Structures are given as C-alpha cells and as structure tokens.
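Dock glutamine; give full complex structure.
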Amino acid sequence: MDFRTTTIRELHEQLVSGTVTPESLLTESRLVIHQRDASIHAFIEVFNDQQETVDVTAGVLAGIPMAVKDNILYKGHIASAASKILENYQASYDATVVELLQQQHAVIVGRLNMDDSAMGTSTESSYYGITRNPLDETRVPGGSSGGPAAAVAAGMVSYALGSDTGGSIRQPAACCGVVGLKPTYGSVSRNGLIAMSSSLDVIGPITNSVEDAETIFNVIGTYDPRDNTSVSYDVRKQYQTKNTNTKVIGIPRSFLEVDGLDPEVLENFNSSIRKMEVAGYTIVDIDLPNLKHSLAVYYILQPAEVSSNLARYDGVRYGLSLKGEDLIDSYKKTKTAGFGREVQRRIMLGTYVLSSGYHDEYYYKARQLRAKITEEIREVFETVDIIATPTAPNVAFPFGAKKDPISLYLEDVFTVPYNLTGNPAISIPSGTNSEGMPFGMHFTAPMFCEDKLFEVGKDFERAILE
Ligand code: GLN
C-alpha cells in the first residue's frame, strides 16, 4: 500500500471490503513518518490519541490517515501556527473543517509545519525549524504549507489540509509535485482557522490527485453560519448557472512576462498547454491589464489585515506572556520574543499603511485596485472557462537561496491574484525539469465553479501522461 498512488476512493473501497483495515493504514502512516520525517520534518507533532474503533462506513474519509496544518484548531491539541507566541496554545474547540472530518471518522495523525503565522513561501521561518522537500532534501518544500505538501509528497498521509492566503496551498503543492486546491473564498468555513488576513484566507486540501481534491472539497465545502463570510448554497448556485460548459482556456500572455520567471517554467507551461489543445481545448490569449498590480496590492492589504488580526497576541489573553516594567514594556517584550522577523515586518508595514495620513494613499488605493482586478477577472470569464498560468515562477529552490523578502514575495506572483478576487484555483503537477524538480500548472475558474476546475484538472492529468 502506498498513499502516493492510491486514491481516497480506492482506499475507501478497500476499507469497506475489508482488504485493508484502519489499523493497517495508521501503521503504514506511522511507518513512513518514522522512516522519513527525522530528516524531512513535515510534522511538528504526531498524535497518539486516534479513536480505537472506526466505522469505515461513516463516510468516504473514514479510517484514512490525514494531517492538518498547525493553524487549524483541533480541540485539546496545540495549534501554534508554527509561532513561538502560540507555542503552548491548546485549541478549546474544533475548526468546522475538523468537525466535518470527524463526522466522517477521518484519522488525524498530527499537525504539520508551516512558515511562522503562515507568512512565507519556503517554510524556512517556522519557529520549529525548516521542512525539507521530499524530492530533494537540499531544497525548500515551498510555503507556507510546506509541512502539508511534504507529508503528502512523502506518502506519510493520504492527504492534508492547508491554508492559502496568497498561494500557500498551491505553491508548496507545485514545489513538491502534488495537487493543491484553493477553494472559492466563502465556500469552506474559516471558523477555527487562526486568522491571518481574513479577507484572503481559505482552507483547502493538498492531495495526490485532482480526484482526491474533489473528494475532500465535497466534504469540507459546506455552508457554515459560524463564519459570517460563508456563502449560502442559493448564492453559490446563482454563480454556477452562469457556467458555460465549453472548453476554452485563456492565457494572460503579457502577465507571463514577469521578471524572474525561469525560462524552463515557461517552456514547460507552453508545452503542457499544447497538450490540452491536442486534448480538444481551445486556447486563446486574454488581456488582464491590472493583474500585474496584484502582488503590490496584496502586500498592502495583507499586512494591514495582519497588523489588525495579530494585535490580539498581546501577552494578556493568549500565548506567550513576558512581564516588563509596565504594560507597554510587557507588550514590547512579548511581541519581540514571540513573533518571527517576517511577522514583525508585516505588522509594521500594516500599521504604516493604515496610519492616519497614509491610509488613503496606500490602503484605500489598494482596495480600489482589488475591485478593478476582480471586475477584470469576472469579465474575462464571460469569454473563457478557465485561466491558465504556471503556479510559480520557479521550481523548489535550495535553502537560503532567497534571502531578501522581496524575492520570496515574487514566488506568489501567479497565485496571489485569485486570493484578491476570491476565485477557486488549483495547482497540478506538470512534469519535472532536468533535475527532477516538479513544475505546477495553475488553473482558475469562475466563482464557485470548483466543478470546472476538477473537470479540466482531470483532463490535464490525462493529457500530461500521454
Ligand atoms: N507567501 C505569501 C505570504 O507570505 C502567502 C502566504 C499564504 O498564503 N499563507 O504572505
């Protein structure tokens, strides 16, 4: 049995027919973790409190080992967002997604490493140390969901849940050669996700196949009154009926001319798209003139929301608490010791763009541009069904290769736009370079049209094999 090559549906069938048991799957998961995680370090903690008895008919996920990113609350377990400030924070309730998994008797084997507070693209900033790429341990696994991507790519679990605010599911999935889905904003509950940038954060699966991503999405993509940005089924349907069901893929050509795009990535993208043409798709060039501003907009809005969300870690109510001479001094000591460098940088940037005098110049302008980009994407979906780009401008890079923050930010250039607009997007493995490092193909669909992503994604998996 190999989690890498067995789909969730196949595992479910084997469990129901009795050819495998939940115990044997858990043993397999623990064995691979034991063999590989000492060097990869995908897990911050492996749990030993799984249910003794699993009803394999409870749902398609019953008895199948999985793990969650360390920013998703699982009652009674620590959820630290890989940050010192929450090192000892124990979740007092289950995230809605965890509740949904448990209703299905899914087996949660542990919590997975990530960049400190989900800010980063390489999992080099975790308070608990780096995660290595299972395909080449001298390279990063991507981030911030580096632990989830590495755990799935190494076959430690069948699938994992991550979070994506600017690319943190899709970019690590691409780096590790697995599938990563960022669902439509509002389709998966954020209740119980440690908030980073509330208007951008989404929970989604990292899996071995598009089919598995669909299986997980069908379980976690439910309406939740406990998240006030969760979208009702009626509203979702209104979007879905606009779906045209044709086969037109749009390529934002001028957007692909970004600085720092590895020529091999572009070459792989072009040849992969040709395979879709052979498979019966129509390929057209599209013009999205404001898309190039997405990264700049993101790095104003995201820090602004970070500075507001992370203000709650003041050493009084949660987590690390260091005593200073007075209250202000206690705040300073706690935050200086508790937050990593990148987190501190974002809080300062965010505080600056929200400050009086700069608010209109930066924050308000960025919000206006976000609305423009969203409108541009909405309009383009009147003529095409899917937008395709590479997932990231580079394959997984060696540790320490990108030291200045801006070069790390650039890794999200193709993923960030759809966090701003809310559209669902998926990264699918698209072959490897001469050094065996995987490329990712990135597809985006109209709002709430995950179905379209799965349909085109499965066609892509077939086309790539031929
Ligand atoms: N890499 C981006 C950042 O550092 C996105 C992170 C994410 O999606 N959680 O903000």
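Observed: The mean pLDDT is 96.
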